[in-house]
C-alpha cells in the first residue's frame, strides 16, 4: 500500500518543518498518496497519521475538508468544472451539462471505461477566463465552450489509443 519510496517522499516533506511541527506536512503527505494511488483511502490516512504522530481522525478531517482529495477511486481523467457564480454567469453550468451528455454520466460519476470522472468545483480563481475547469487537479483549461470541451475529451480518448474491439483495430 504505502511503499518505502512513498515514505521517503513523506520524509522530505516533514523535513521542511521543525520536528515538533511535523504534522504540518499532512497536506503534502495526502497529496503524495493521491498522486501515487489516485485517491486517499482510510488505510492511507491511517499510515499518514501514524507517520506524523497524529490521530487518524485529524488526517481524515483534512481529507474531507478539502475537495482536492479524492475519497474514492476516480477515472484516469478527473474533470472539475467550476460552477461558482462568475463561471455560471459565463456558461459554467452549460459546460458541465455538455460534458454530462458527451460522457453519458452525471456529475459525480465515472464513465464505465474508467477514463473520466466528472465533478463540479468551487472557484478556481480564473473568473476572467470563464468557464474554466481543472483536469486531474493540475491543468487549468479556460474559455471552455462546447467545441473546446469536445476537443479536450476527444483528445484525451485518442491519447489512450484504441480500446479492445474497436473498429479498425488490428488483432
From TrEMBL:
<dbReference type="InterPro" id="IPR041921">
    <property type="entry name" value="NuoE_N"/>
</dbReference>
<dbReference type="GO" id="GO:0003954">
    <property type="term" value="F:NADH dehydrogenase activity"/>
</dbReference>
<dbReference type="Pfam" id="PF01257">
    <property type="entry name" value="2Fe-2S_thioredx"/>
</dbReference>
<keyword id="KW-0411">Iron-sulfur</keyword>
<comment type="similarity">
    <text>Belongs to the complex I 24 kDa subunit family.</text>
</comment>
<dbReference type="GO" id="GO:0046872">
    <property type="term" value="F:metal ion binding"/>
</dbReference>
<feature type="binding site">
    <location>
        <position position="82"/>
    </location>
    <ligand>
        <name>[2Fe-2S] cluster</name>
    </ligand>
</feature>
<dbReference type="InterPro" id="IPR042128">
    <property type="entry name" value="NuoE_dom"/>
</dbReference>
<keyword id="KW-0001">2Fe-2S</keyword>
<dbReference type="GO" id="GO:0051537">
    <property type="term" value="F:2 iron, 2 sulfur cluster binding"/>
</dbReference>
<feature type="binding site">
    <location>
        <position position="87"/>
    </location>
    <ligand>
        <name>[2Fe-2S] cluster</name>
    </ligand>
</feature>
<dbReference type="InterPro" id="IPR036249">
    <property type="entry name" value="Thioredoxin-like_sf"/>
</dbReference>
<feature type="binding site">
    <location>
        <position position="127"/>
    </location>
    <ligand>
        <name>[2Fe-2S] cluster</name>
    </ligand>
</feature>
<protein>
    <submittedName>
        <fullName>NADH dehydrogenase subunit E</fullName>
    </submittedName>
</protein>
<dbReference type="InterPro" id="IPR002023">
    <property type="entry name" value="NuoE-like"/>
</dbReference>
<keyword id="KW-0408">Iron</keyword>
<keyword id="KW-0479">Metal-binding</keyword>
<feature type="binding site">
    <location>
        <position position="123"/>
    </location>
    <ligand>
        <name>[2Fe-2S] cluster</name>
    </ligand>
</feature>
